[in-house]
Amino acid sequence: QSVLTQPPSVSGAPGQRVTISCTGSSSNFGAGYDAHWYQQLPGTAPKLLIYASNNRPSGVPDRFSGSKSGTSASLAINGLQAEDEGDYYCQTYDNSLNDHYVFGAGTKVTVL
Amino acid sequence: QVQLVQSGAEVKKPGASVRVSCKASGYSFSSYDINWVRQASGQGLEWMGWMNPFSGNTGYAQKFQGRFTMTRNISIATAYMELSSLKSDDTAVYYCARREVIPEPHFDYWGQGTLVTVSS
After folding, report:
1. Which of B46, B103, B107 faces A52 most closely, judged by CB atoms?
2. 3-class SS letters over A79-111
3. Does pLDDT of B89 surpass 80?
């Protein structure tokens, strides 16, 4: 059972917009900690996609955007492309645990 | 450019130990914590612990305390993780990741992963 709750899967046609939610609690997002998102394409290592809720590292297309409100965060992919198919994980810090860093269980994005 | 290059796949028997290395390049090794994250086949990411290469200080996820050790060799910019008393459910891909703290802690660069298989 992950501390952060994500939908197991989302899907969309090429060009569509999809969003992935990440629900936390008062000990992580609600305490003011930011959301970070990682993309894991099949057979590869995770890659930082969004940090501090809505910042993109250099090289990440602006089709990807993030937001956070209260105890939840979300990732949006605009103009979905076939190459976006993979798993997406949210991550944050939690102050209720000895395990400082927590991940969501991941969301599989399928491009129809 | 920043790179983290991990050692190759390992096959171990139950009860044995495994050591995985993570060689850093392209930045000041001592300036960023190294974290370890594992992923069982078809499963999500599981944070295991952190190490400050400068001080050698470490922090461990509760689940792994007692059988998980992180060390480093600053002269060759390499971090190590060792997991002992291996069980079949330790079979996973193990990743090292660099922790950036600005503006908040996140993992900005990852190694390619090392598959550890525990099987009799």
Report:
1. B103
2. CCCHHHCEEEEEEEECCCCCCCEEEECCEEEEE
3. yes
